[in-house]
Every structure is written in C-alpha cells, then in structure tokens.
What does this fold into?
Amino acid sequence: MYTRHISANILEALPDTPVILIRGARQTGKTTLVRDIMPDHISSEYVTLDNALALAAAQSDPSGFIAGVAKPVVIDEIQKAPGLLPAIKEHVDRDRSPGRFILTGSSDIMAGLRISDSLAGRMEIFDLWPLSRAEISGSTINLVDALFTPELAWPTPTDTDVMSAVLTGGYPEALARSTERRRQAWFSAYVTTIVERDIRDLSNIQDLAAMPRLLQLLASRTGQLLSYADISRSLTIPQTTLKRYMALLEATFLIRELPAWAVNIGKRVTKASKLIFTDTGLAAHLAGLNSDRFTLDRQAFGHLLENHVVCEMAKHATWSETRATLSHFRSHTGQEVDLILEDPAGRIVGVEIKASATPTSSDFKGLRLLAQSCPGKFLRGIVLHLGPETVPFGESLHALPMAGM
It folds into this structure.
C-alpha cells in the first residue's frame, strides 16, 4: 500500500467543503485512496457507478438518487452519470454541511458541463496522478517546495535507476507486475479499455479506429512541441477530427499540454504547447521503447526523460505548500527552458533536463536568458542531469542530480 501525499490536502478540505472531487486516469488509485482515508475520519455510504443497478438509478432519477443515499456519501466514477451534479448542487444549496459528497471521476466531466461554475464555492477538485517516485520510495520531500526555498534544499541522491523509473511509470498495477513482459501486457489491456470503453462512453464518435495509431504517434513525440497540422498530415485525418480525439485523450487524463510561458519577456517566443503523457511507462509502451532502444536512441530517451521530470514536478505541485504553475519557454532563436515553475508572487524557477551525466556551461544558456529577461523575479535555474554531483554554475545556477527526485 502506497501513501498518497495528496491525502493530507483532501482531509484538510473535508471539514469546510461540501463537495470533494478526486479525478484522474483509470487505475491511478482513486478508489483505493478514498477507501483508505475515509473510514478513519467519516462514516460514509459508498456507491460505485460501475454497478449497473446503481448507474441505472442515478441516470433515471438523479434528484431522487441523491435524496435517497445516506450522507456523507462516496460516489465512485461520477462521470458515468453527470446528471447527478446538478442534483448535488441543489442538495448542497439546501444543506451546506461540509464533507457531504466525495466524488471520484476517471474523466474530466468539468470540461463540457460548466458544472464547476455552478458549484463554485461548494466544490474542491483534486487531481490524482500516477504514483510519484517519492510516493513509491516513501520519501516525504516535496520537490516544488525544495526548489522555492531560500536555500536550495535538493534531496540527497539515491541509487534509483532513472531509466527504469521512466520505463515503469507510476500506475500501481503496472508496478506490481514482476516482469517487463507482464507490464507490457497490462499496458496493452489498459489502452484497449480506455479506447473501447471510456472514450467511446464520452463521445458520440463511432469510428475510433485511428485512436490507437494516434496514441502511438503521440507517444513518439512526447516532450516535444505540439503541432496539430503535422500530426494531421502524418495520420491523414482532418484537424477537426484530430482535435476532438485530442480532447478525449485529455479528458481521460492520458495526455496533457504543457503551455508556453505567457509572460512577455520582450522577445518573440514560441507559443505552442508541449505534449506530455501523464505516465511515461505507458508512453514507452506505446512507442515501443525499452532499455535497449534507449541505449541506441538517446534522443528518444531525452524526450521521455523530459516528460518524466515534468510529470514528477506536476505531481508534487498537487501537494506542495508552494502553489506553482508549470510552463515551458522557447525563443524564436531556439533557446529554451524545458520547464518553468512560477509561484503566485511571480518568482520563477527554470529547469533544464539533460540526458547526460556531465553538465556543461552551455546547458545553462536558456536559463541565463530567462534570468536576464525577468530581473527581480528569477529565483534560480537548475539543470537536472544523470550524474551524482551537485555543481554550482554561477549565481543562482546549479546542476543537480536527477537521482535526487
């Protein structure tokens, strides 16, 4: 059993928030998390909409269903009956008692229903990612908070095999498989389930034959700038269809976009987002990558390694004390910063990710440009590398070992 670090944030919200929504991809452990933390704090009714009878009742009479269940109640897989959300709002408006509804969802039902607006002030949303390396190892250090401390507090490197971490990802069920062959079988079944059940349930698109090909192509481009035109040409599908497919993949939390940094730093910059898979193990499976391929194709490893670091930072941001937004920066001349973290005060930490054990001064070019362009806001720049050493490269610039993550 893994301790999920976001648990403390959820428990903190229960005493003052009527509706809690925990959302994330299938098999990230949402149900396990709820069952783990709820019994010790509240006596809850539990309803799963994977149960056909419960689902039929919820869909046929949402108001009656909500009125009839005991409170507090945990409703699992709420996306199967989105009509329950207006009924929950109506109930909460009559009784604002905190902790009445704990919901879990495997797709982003907020995107198309505008329910988040109507439940403003009544609901708090928590995103559950696949397991972080800290949760897998039992570490309590938060990387985002470490990067924003006045004195850089980077964790001591361990003997973690970074390549293995990238290839296995963070799905609990995949991690439980004893061999690579068995993990690959799990990933194959997982993709089939998502495409044939969850995505089809979300959409009225009948022909999803292109979806597996799209996933494979996207997996080969993870960590790179997202070009709808290029992907559309490669798959010979219209951009309108492609964008609907991409929206479905985002709604089921398989992919995310890392937006371009929005602050005007006085130079022309690339505005395209970067493509990120929420789990590098799944991305490696889809792209046919393994340790042997990584040894031969360092560029492919570098892109997936960047994806890995972005995901780890995003996971830590869900439970960090520092509320940080994540983005990337690339100038029209090609200088870039792989990841930018910005806190509410505007302080900026830049992160470069290198698939090398020997960082050099040239690895800091993008970070130096960033520092010059936002004086007074640039807190520090770091280059994460595969070596064991922490090395200063100038004021507020450090090379740090990725094995500390």
